[in-house]
From TrEMBL, chain A:
InterPro entries: AAA+_ATPase, ATPase_AAA-3, CbbQ/NirQ/NorQ/GpvN, ChlI/MoxR_AAA_lid, P-loop_NTPase. It comes from the Bacteria. Residues 33-174 form the AAA+ ATPase domain. Keywords: ATP-binding, Nucleotide-binding. PANTHER family: METHANOL DEHYDROGENASE REGULATOR, MOXR FAMILY PROTEIN. It comes from Zoogloea dura. This is AAA domain-containing protein. SUPFAM superfamilies: P-loop containing nucleoside triphosphate hydrolases. GO terms for molecular function: ATP binding; ATP hydrolysis activity.
From TrEMBL, chain B:
The chain crosses the membrane at residues 13-43, 55-73, 128-148, 160-178, 541-561. The keyword Cytoplasm does not apply. Pfam families: DUF4129, TgpA_N, Transglut_core. The keyword Coiled coil does not apply. Residues 395-466 form the Transglutaminase-like domain. Keywords: Membrane, Transmembrane, Transmembrane helix. Gene3D superfamilies: 3.10.620.30. This is DUF3488 domain-containing transglutaminase family protein. It comes from Zoogloea dura. SUPFAM superfamilies: Cysteine proteinases. InterPro entries: Bact_TGase-like, Papain-like_cys_pep_sf, TgpA-like_C, TgpA_N, Transglutaminase-like.
Length: 306, 647
């Protein structure tokens, strides 16, 4: 059953986001693993469209927050305003109270504002005026940041990056996909006419199915080998945290589910590892290794028993 | 299940086993019986190929009666070793004709195992051991064919060989530690007595030449240090003093526990391995020092306490330079001067002439040697018949002879000249086997020489043959004869390759004899004490054997249990698959997952794609899907990999 749902999702998304099968699959896997997603790429490659498509297809409420340098935490979380009518402060929920939040250009906001969002992501609730307000379920944040634009930005520190399950880049479409894009109808119209691919409750079925994907002891061995190597090897200055390990398992499960399998294979782990570990690893010394190369070196350094 | 009909492959295995088992027996079975067996087996083979049906019960009964009748007629009885084996061979062939069920097939295999054993009743050399081993492997293969699914022949044989290999540790324990009884491993009383060649205790003209025709091995000697030169390698056998004009005989002397001489000069320590010759003489190198348990005669022979009926091995030390018989008894000297009252007048005259010419008696032997050399006597393996007086005829008329002619003529001449002398027979020289460094002394090395007693020097060896044909001593028999005609093929020196082959086979045989057939209680004790186990009684040996067997069995069992763990079974099969792919040039990268690996193989080798896909699918399921892994799936996975060949 879940495989039909997955295929339906992937097919529908693939019709709009052209030539980005792998990134789409990763994005879905990230959401099925109930993790937050960081999209890091140049403007105009379809980051926002991707977020829209995911929200639409999954049938989630969608809210976009454009981050700016003068933004305050309250602009995101919400604010308590004195209501003269019943002579009390009343909390007005901010845009974060939404199932899928697109935090556009998150690196434009000040660290203070960034951390307000990131704390909300982690806690899945908001504390204000001595009270807590739970965020809706499911709750996803898709944040984007522009790596090329460095002036006047506040890049997310490593500790905050760890809260994103995956970081992926979209990249430019290839020539054939771009041709289709250029020749086709307006994406915005297509997007507007997009209907949810899932019936109510089916998303919960998928979440449950992802959690039930089997992880064999041998696979846990392999994941532990990967974590251990990232910590012990001289090639990395910052190893993978236990949270990264959990993220890796969750992502690999979701990836296996999308492939219609009920058990995780080493290939699943290797497939999600660049997205899961790329933003968490730091190369030792000042070797300017790209995250992809770094993850590749990790994979190739850890033998798979068998 | 136990009584299912035979599959065609099982039937073929049984026929093959019968052929392999009966073939080595063909050399001692009556030809007629071998023929019957062949016919019966061909018949069964034809039935297996669908030509004709199995014979009925009455036909089989009639055939059995014919078979028993044939054996009874051939051997005049149906009991005993020969008729027993013959009967079993026939019945085994006959049994196949009523074998079309697995249960009967087992009976045939059982019988074939017994027949492997039966080969050793005739011979115990390495060839038989190899034949019995291959027969056993085939029998085990047939047994496993009866038990399991059809398998290709190569794998079946490998499997059986592996089983046999697993039995080797236990076999070694039993061989080394099983309490030994005196005697050879398989010796039957008849074995030693049918030996016809070899020295005898009498010598007449032509006797030594006849012995020399045989290339059979008399004994082997391996020296610990450099061996003595060929001219000193005289291996003493019977000493012949009494002469009746034609035949030389021994005189009876009392036996001593110690030699009657004081050893002197260079010592040569060596190990003598004597082939059984059913006589007591031990053919030691002159002159052996005292050794426990052996006897010494007054004429310096070394004797065993009993006739040598089994291959015997002993460690001896000899001192060739020892002076012997310095104070010889007058009786001995008188016997060594005796000549028959009449006969050989010309030789007697020669002796007296030499005596007259010699300044003193001690010079006489040298004069005689010189005379022999001058008279142009020819050394030949095929001496013509001699006239009335043997010695006269040889020395003065025919002038051709073999060593016994030379020795006899020399001794008679000396006696006529008043010098005590006697004939010594034995072996001379021997050939060094470069492979294991031991000397091989064959019957063709049999020799006769002379000893003369000189005052103040005792018994001194003279070899008149060497005087006339010096190469006999330096180059062996084949080197001394004008051409190699009449020399046994194996003794010829001109065929280098043949000698090399012979040396190699002989070295191998020697170790086999020493360590397998000659593994007797003494050897066992020797081996155990060299392992630090000291003196062992029967009880200790049994306990030791039980303990060692338990260790071996425990080890094998632990190994089997370890191998049985499913986890390892999956890994092992997968590793085998990876190994085969690596051999085909597609090695799995250390970090490469199974699916990626399979995909890479399918791209490089589309011909394997289907097979590899199935294997990878099974592997990932067994390895990564939730347990319990299905046993049938594991079996299928293992089988698919065993049957997988990338070439």
């Amino acid at each position: 059953m879940p495989i039909h749902l997955c295929n339906r999702l992937l097919d529908a998304a693939g019709e709009i986001i052209l030539g980005k099968d792998r990134a789409l699959r990763l994005a879905f896997a990230c959401l099925l693993a109930r993790g937050h997603l960081l999209l890091e790429d140049r403007p105009g490659v379809g980051k926002t469209t991707l977020a829209h498509v995911l929200a639409r297809l999954l049938g989630l409420e969608f809210q976009r927050i454009q981050f700016t340098s003068d933004m305050l935490p309250a602009d995101i979380l919400g604010v308590s305003i004195f209501n003269q009518h019943d002579t009390a402060f009343r909390f007005h929920p901010g845009p974060v109270f939404c199932q899928l939040v697109l935090a556009d250009e998150i690196n434009r906001a000040t660290p203070k504002t960034q951390s307000a969002l990131l704390e909300a992501m982690e806690e899945r609730q908001i504390s204000a005026e001595g009270r807590t307000w739970p965020l809706p379920t499911p709750f996803f944040v898709i944040a984007t940041q522009n790596p090329a634009d460095q002036i006047g930005t506040f890049p997310l520190p490593e500790s905050q990056l760890d809260r994103f399950l995956m970081r992926i880049a979209l990249g430019y479409p290839d020539r054939a996909a771009e041709r289709l894009l250029l020749a086709g109808e307006d994406r915005r119209e297509v997007l507007a006419s997009l209907r949810p691919a899932l019936a109510p409750g089916e998303l919960d079925t998928l979440f449950a199915a992802a959690r039930q994907v089997h992880v064999a002891p041998r696979l846990l061995d392999y994941i532990q080998d990967l974590l251990a190597h990232s910590r012990e090897s001289a090639g990395f200055s910052l190893g993978l945290s236990p949270r990264a390990g959990l993220a890796l398992i969750a992502a690999a499960r979701a990836w296996a589910l999308l492939a219609g399998r009920e058990h995780v294979l080493p290939e699943d782990v290797q497939a999600v590892l660049p997205a899961v570990a790329g933003h968490r690893l730091r190369a030792a010394g000042d070797a300017p290794a790209s995250p992809e190369a770094l993850v590749r070196s990790l994979i190739e350094a850890v033998p798979l028993r068998g | 299940m136990p009584d299912t009909p035979l599959r065609p492959d099982q039937c073929d295995w049984l026929i093959a086993v019968a052929v392999l088992t009966l073939l080595p027996h063909a050399s001692h079975l009556p030809a007629g019986l071998s023929g019957i067996c062949v016919l019966l087996l061909i018949w069964r083979g034809a039935i297996a190929r669908g030509k004709g049906s199995m014979p009925g019960r009455w036909t089989l009964l009639a055939l059995a009666v014919v078979l028993i009748g044939f054996v009874a007629l051939e051997f005049r009885q149906v009991f005993g070793k020969e008729p027993g084996i013959a009967l079993l061979a026939g019945l085994m062939s006959l049994k196949l004709l009523e074998t079309n069920r697995v249960r009967d097939g087992r009976a045939v295999v059982l019988l074939s195992f017994f027949m492997q054993l039966g080969q050793f009743l005739y011979r115990q050399d390495m060839l038989i051991a190899a034949l019995a081993l291959s027969g056993s492997v085939a029998s085990i293969a047939a047994l496993s064919a009866l038990q399991g699914a059809a398998l290709d022949v190569g794998r079946r044989i490998r499997q059986a060989a592996l089983l046999v290999l697993q039995g080797v540790p236990l076999m070694l324990v039993l061989f080394v530690l099983f309490p030994r009884v005196q005697g050879p491993l398989w010796g039957l009383p008849a074995d030693a007595y049918n030996r016809s060649s070899g020295l005898s205790d009498t010598m007449a003209p032509g006797d030594m030449a006849r012995v020399s025709q045989s290339a059979e091995i008399a004994f082997r000697a391996s020296f610990e240090a450099p061996p003595p030169p060929s001219a000193e390698r005289y291996w003493r056998g019977p000493v012949l003093t009494r002469f009746d004009g034609h035949v030389w005989r021994q005189i009876r002397t009392p036996l001593r526990e110690m030699p009657a001489y004081q050893t002197q000069g260079t010592a040569y320590a060596y190990t003598l391995t004597l082939e059984p010759h059913n006589q007591r003489w031990l053919l030691a190198l002159d002159f052996p020092a005292a050794a426990a348990g052996l006897r010494y005669t007054n004429d310096f022979q070394l004797l065993a306490r009993e006739a040598v009926t089994a291959r015997q091995r002993m460690n001896l030390v000899s001192y060739p330079a020892t002076p012997v018989g310095l104070d010889e008894s007058p009786l001995q000297l008188r016997l060594a001067l005796a000549l028959p009252p009449s006969g050989n007048p010309r030789t007697r005259a020669l002796g007296e002439a030499l005596k007259a010419r010699a300044a003193n008696p001690a010079a006489i032997p040298e004069l005689a040697i010189a005379h022999f050399r001058q008279s142009g006597l020819a050394y030949t393996l095929e001496p013509p018949a001699l006239g009335q007086d043997d010695v006269d005829s040889f020395l003065f008329d025919i002038r051709q002879g073999f060593c016994e002619h030379f020795a006899a003529a020399f001794v008679v001449t000396l006696r006529a000249a008043g010098v005590p002398a006697r004939v010594v027979t034995g072996y001379q020289g021997g050939e060094l086997n470069p492979i294991d460094g031991s000397f091989v002394i064959r019957q063709s090395d049999a020799h006769a020489w002379a000893e003369a007693w000189l005052p103040g020097r005792g018994w001194v060896r003279f070899d008149p043959t060497a005087a006339s044909a010096p190469r006999r001593i330096d180059g062996g028999l084949a080197g001394a004869l004008p051409d190699s005609v009449g020399v046994p093929l194996l003794v010829r020196t001109d065929l280098a390759w043949l000698r090399a082959v012979r040396d190699r086979v002989d070295a191998l045989n020697n170790s086999w004899n020493q360590w397998v057939l000659g593994y007797n209680p003494a050897r066992q004790q020797e081996l155990l004490s060299s392992l630090g186990l000291g003196k062992n009684g029967l009880a200790e040996l049994t306990a030791l054997m039980a303990a060692a067997s338990a260790v071996v069995m425990g080890g094998l069992m632990a190994w089997a249990l370890r191998r049985r763990s499913t986890d390892d079974a999956i890994d092992r099969a997968w590793q085998l698959f990876c190994k085969r792919m690596a051999a085909a040039g597609l090695a799995r990268l250390s970090w490469e997952g199974p699916v990626d690996f399979g995909r890479r193989i399918s791209l490089a080798r589309p011909d394997l794609a289907l097979q590899v896909e199935a294997i990878v699918n099974d592997y990932t399921r067994l390895r990564y899907a939730p347990p319990p892994g299905d046993d049938a799936q594991l079996k299928r996975f293992q089988d698919s990999i065993k049957n997988f060949h990338a070439r």
